[in-house]
């Protein structure tokens, strides 16, 4: 039994060391991701529930490394451990606003662009000036740009969050509270922050409609948000049943596989920009 214990110990230690060195490798490779042009954005259409028109897009980052597409869950949290997220974040903002500016120039000036912000970016001294510069450079009205911030990010440093969010709103950009309904302090946040939108997390979309509790929670969150004058978006809308629920609850905008997964810019151009022109 004793030797088994030792073997186990070394097994776990080896695994941990492997994971650690993989992390360090990703960290190192990430340092040059921006300058090597390895990042790219996908865009997921945001749909108006009432008329099913596309009203905007959410920018979702990908990392093209060694011929493979690395999803954000595998590198954003690592980038957040260092200041790598600052330059990556600024690249994302610039690219997303540039794309929006391009669509505006073609005459599609009413799409919104949602950009995810990490709380670590709040500490980037150039964040706000970067946003301001991009909006000016690409000639985009600020209200077309919405920044998505998670509840947990706000909670991490309340004072800092409030300061940066205030500045972003002064520019005229909108603020959305992302992953809404997953943290337990949701309700108090709604009053404490000047936010325009809440995004109901996909984990709240019911797996089946046997239990009505999920529905009650969503109905309640929407009713409360509306009373506070906050717009509600649902993500993870995968089925017709989800869509019906969103309609019944009074949700205004939805995202999800039912309508479209995130797509690369060329595909978006083909489906929504050029197709509509011809
Ligand atoms: P998120 O902001 O909550 O984004 C929604 C995620 O759900 C996206 O995953 C999207 O592809 C996925 N999704 C969309 N529709 C559906 C659906 O109908 N069903 C299901 N099951 N999933 C759906 P993705 O692109 O892998 O991004 C994962 C997370 O990585 C994002 O969650 C966000 O927290 C982070 N992330 C992505 N892009 C960025 C970025 O540019 N900056 C930062 N800081 N974080 C990002
Ligand atoms: Ca998001
Ligand atoms: Ca989410
Ligand atoms: Ca998330």
TrEMBL record:
Domain EAL: 23-276
Name of the protein in question: GGDEF domain-containing response regulator
